Amino acid sequence: MAPSPHRMQCRASALLDCAQMSGASPSRSPSFATRVATLPEGQVAVVGLPWDEQSSFMRGAALAPPRIRDVLHDGSANLCTEHGADLSSTPGWTDVGDVALTSGPAVLAEIDTAVAALLERGARVLSLGGDHAVSYPVLRAYARAHPGLTVLHIDAHPDLYDEFEGSRLSHACPFARVMEENLASRLVQVGIRTMTPHQREQAVRFGVEVVEMRHWTPARRLELGDAPVYLSLDLDALDPACAPGVSHHEPGGFTTREVLGILHAIGPALIGADIVEFNPQRDTGTTTAMLAAKFYREIVGRLLADRRRSAR
Question: Could you count the other beta carbons within 10 Å of the beta carbon of residue 61?
Answer without folding.
Answer: 32
